[in-house]
Every structure is written in C-alpha cells, then in structure tokens.
Amino acid sequence: MSKETEYKNNLNQERNLRKPNTSNPKDQAKKIAKNIATAASLIGLLEITDLFFLVAIMAAIIKDILDCLVIPALPIIGTALTLMASFVIIASMLICGSSSVKSKSSKVNDFASKAVKKWGVLATGTCFEFFFGLNFIPTETVTAIIIFVFILQERKTAREERRQEEGEKAEMNYGVYA
Question: At what angle do helices 75-96 and 50-69 cross, to 10 degrees?
C-alpha cells in the first residue's frame, strides 16, 4: 500500500510540474489594464508642439518605406535620407524639448542623463541605418517613437514634481493662515 501511495504522490507531483504556469485571469486583466492606463496617461500629456514630432515620425516612416522600395540600388541617396530624417528628429527634439519648466529640485545630472539617453538612442538608430543589409529594418521609425516616449515621460515627471511643489506651498500657506 505504501508503494502505491508513494507512486500516486510522485505521479501527482510530476503532473503539477508539467502544468503550465497560469496565473489568475483577473491578475492578468489587471496587468493589462495597468499597462493601458500608463499609455493613456502619456497620451494625456500631448501638446500642440508635438505636431513637430509627428512630422519627424512621418519622415522616419517615409524614409524606412523608401529604404525597402527604391533606395537599395542607390546607397548615397539612402544615406542622405537617413541623415535628413535624423535632422528632422533633432529639430523636433529641440522644439518639443523635455520639460519646459524646470523645478528647483531637478538636478543638472538628471537633466544631462536624460539628454544623453535621447541623443544616444538617436545616434544608435542612425548608425544602425548605415549598416548594409540592416537598413531594411525600420529603426529610424522606432528611434523616433522611443525618443518621443522619453519626452512624454519627462513631461509626466515634471508635471508630478510641479504638483508636489504646489502642494508643499499650499501646506505652508495653510500653516501661516491657520
């Protein structure tokens, strides 16, 4: 009897190991909803100047489409289009910028690291386009979108810092009048 129960226990353990690890569907739905909410919160940070970045993303898309259709036979034109698309992205980065209002608590190192991150993504994406055979991958479009998301995230953190500072000022004013 003990061998039979031992066999059943081992069999059950083996079956449990082979089961796919499925979490609760409610938890998965909550994760998906959280990701959608995060994306929606970034969409809420759009400004009118972001139209310039829309132009940069469109230029990158057109450049990547031309890479696939026409430009493979003409590498000089492909290089020129890559540089032009990168310059449009640079102009959009300078126009849209990061947070237009700097808070007193923001550090110079934090600003520099964000700038280096954006410029590094742009340089990497542009250099990747110069490799023959890899320029068919739409890296310029992906680069423009990543930089735009970085700018939206910077705006979000700047807005949160401003709200926190306004809350602290309101608390101080309330303490004066109380």
Answer: 170
Residues 94 and 32 occupy one common structural domain? no
3-state DSSP assignment of residue 23: coil
Please report where in the chains the tokens 């057109």 appear, as a residue: 62
Question: Please, is 147 exposed, middle or buried when counting C-beta atoms within 10 Å of its C-beta (0-12, 13-18, 19+)?
Answer: buried
Q: Are residues 27 and 97 in the same domain?
A: no
Specify the pLDDT at position 178.
54
- H/E element, 33: helix 25-43
pTM for the model stands at 0.66
**Alpha-carbon gap, residue 72 to 74, rounded angstroms:** 5
Q: Give the residue numbers spanning the domain of 169.
A: 48-177
Structure tokens at 39: 């994306």
Are 100 and 140 members of one domain?
A: yes
Q: What are the structure tokens assigned to 177, written together?
A: 């009048």
Pair (23, 104) in one structural domain: no
Q: Give the other-Cβ count within 10 Å of 148's Cβ.
A: 22
The tens digit of pLDDT for each residue in 12-38 reads: 777 766 655 556 777 777 777 776 666
Instruction: Give 135's contacts (C-beta < 8 A, 6+ positions apart).
Output: 67, 78, 82, 128, 129
